[in-house]
Amino acid sequence: MTTETTPLYQTLAHELRDAMNDGRLSAGARLPSVREAARSRGLSINTVLAAYRQLEARGLVEARPQSGYFVRSRLAAPFAAKPVSRTVEPGPIEPAVLDRIAAVVAAQADTDHVDLSLACPKGGDFYPAARLARVVADTARRYPQLIGDYSLPPGSSRLRREIARHAQALGLTLEPDTIVLTNGCMEALQFALRTVTRRGDAVAMESPTYFNLIPLAKRLGLQIIELPTHPERGMSLDALEMLLSEQRVKAVVCMPDVHNPLGTSMPLASKRRLAALAAEYRVPVIEDALYAELQYATPLQPAVKSFDRDGWVMLCASYTKTLAPGFRIGWMEAGRFHREVADLKFCSSVAQPAVLCEALGTFLEDGGYTQHLRRLRRLYAAQIDRLRGVIDEVFPAGTLATEPTGGFLLWVELPEGCDANRLFDAALARGISITPGTLFSPSGRYDRNLRLSGCYPFSDRHIHALATLGELAGAQLERA
Ligand SMILES: Cc1ncc(COP(=O)(O)O)c(C=O)c1O
């Protein structure tokens, strides 16, 4: 309640809180800038700041560097990790999981569907496609020999130099000579696994994990040991240490920053410990840093590899999520395994297309990339807030969702009684594609979870599709 003696800042805070409660200010909305609010209300800047800080202290809004204050969603975050047990056994990869992956990928490819599933930005807002097209045309005109010459490894020195330069933002000091260019991050992950494992070996992976690692492991004849992974604490390093001390895994695959599907990152202290465990037990860590540059907060948290002194961390990344999925340009720095990885690249696919590599190198050199990333971070943070806000409104009570630290993916946990696989089928019948949680575990866990993406311009179609999903989940609950 506000009285005549209530300080001005509290009156303002109450007013804003009321607007949040009755929906005039929804989750993800940006509060007017401090200066703007002060001017329009005839208040001092300090009064407005005090009001905003009070709302922030109560968890109602959050401050984003250089962007302002945003209304937070009140969805709680799920705590999906199970307690550590001594019985983390490698299980068979469930054939049903592989079938589900194929079904989801087919649904993603159907352009008629409202796509809430694909983890790849859609639309001109997210990529500087026109600028890149000009650089490609210019590169082809200036260096036509790049088309006529045979592309040989290690490929464009300009691109490798630029990759090393931008990697400094992740705390990495890399030599361009030890960067291997790959066909996307997927090829890098494959090379890493093929270099350090043999058929029949077991590898440790986060659970949930990026779903395409599951068919890859199957192809390579590997067993997967699922490590409990917490949205905020990251993978259980106690469970990992137990496995390492028993020499049960040949490699660890992880996404420490902006995990797919969780959207969250591992704390810094855990990254340090993971690098130390790799060195102590002499086991390679395959670090998938694909989304690391999309962390919302800057300066970026350093990669696990930045703590690697003996070359046990193999870092894999690409420009698929930040610049140009169509280029299929990825890269890896394989530490002590560099020579074997470079050989594997040569006998697998020789090199990457020279014109595209040179064009990408030129783009990275020009300085546009840093600004582009800055813009993307703000955009995705707002997209995810909006998505969380809509889910908060239209999904059944008791739904949980992670609070991503970057990127455009959200991991949702539906209330007991819901079934994500059935929800996928029902949604697909209504022209909506989603990604059920069961895809992200070789044993088909997470049957109440969904991964939803927020990398498209929100339209009424998307909001309507989310509302339909909420209704379908609600109907499942009623039947249960
Ligand atoms: C975590 C993760 N790693 C690797 C990949 C594959 O990346 P690319 O398309 O660059 O091969 C993806 C693609 O979605 C991904 O999400």
Query: What would the average pLDDT be, to the nearest integer?
Result: 92
Measured on Cα atoms, how large is the radius of gyration? 23 Å
CATH topology value of the largest domain: Aspartate Aminotransferase, domain 2
Q: What structural class do the secondary elements suggest?
A: alpha/beta
Could you give the distance between the termini? 42 Å
Give unreliable regions as ranges.
81-86
Q: How many discrete domains? A: 3
Strands side by side in the biggest sheet: 4-11-10-9-8-5-6-7
**What bound compounds does this protein have?**
pyridoxal-5'-phosphate
Main pleated-sheet profile: 8 strands, mixed
How much of the sequence lies in strands comes to: 5-15%
Helical amount: 40-55%
The total of beta strands comes to 16
Provide a descriptive summary of the structure in words.
The chain has helices at 8-21, 34-41, 45-57, 95-109, 129-142, 145-148, 157-167, 184-196, 213-219, 237-245, 268-281, 338-349, 354-365, 368-394, 420-429, 460-479, and strands at 61-64, 68-71, 114-115, 179-183, 202-207, 223-230, 234-235, 251-254, 285-288, 313-318, 329-333, 400-401, 409-413, 432-433, 435-436, 449-453. The chain is of the alpha/beta class. It folds into 3 domains: 8-71, Arc Repressor Mutant, subunit A, CATH 1.10.10; 95-124 and 370-479, Aspartate Aminotransferase, domain 1; 152-365, Aspartate Aminotransferase, domain 2, CATH 3.40.640.10. The strands form 4 sheets. It has an 8-stranded mixed sheet, sandwiched between helices. Strand 8 (251-254), helix 11 and strand 9 (285-288) form a beta-alpha-beta unit. The longest helix is centred in the last third of the chain and has 27 residues, at 368-394. The radius of gyration is 23 Å and the shape is globular. The two termini are 42 Å apart. 48% of the residues are buried. The structure holds pyridoxal-5'-phosphate (PLP). Pyridoxal-5'-phosphate is lined by residues 119, 184-186, 210, 255, 260, 288, 290, 318, 320, 330.
